[in-house]
Write a structure and sequence with these properties.
alpha+beta, 21% strand, flat
Length: 72
């Protein structure tokens, strides 16, 4: 399971924090499988989401614009 998923863009967003520390290999393997099926991934740290929210939002917006452009 991913933290957020947009079917229209086939894009997943993962927020990595303490709960992911023991699952790094599992997360990477799952991401590889999903990417092999065309899912695009964005990864952020829990700290970035908390303390650099504007940067995270900006990166998500840019990625959505790029993904949308490539879908056209």
């Amino acid at each position: 399971m991913v933290d957020f998923y947009c079917h229209k863009l086939n894009m997943a967003i993962e927020i990595d924090g303490v709960s992911h520390d023991s699952k790094v290999e599992q997360d990477r393997a799952r991401q590889n499988v999903l990417e092999s099926r065309g899912v695009r991934f964005l990864r952020f740290t829990d700290e970035d989401v908390r303390y650099n929210r504007d940067s995270v939002i900006r990166e998500i917006r840019v990625s959505i614009e790029n993904f949308s452009r490539n879908m056209s």
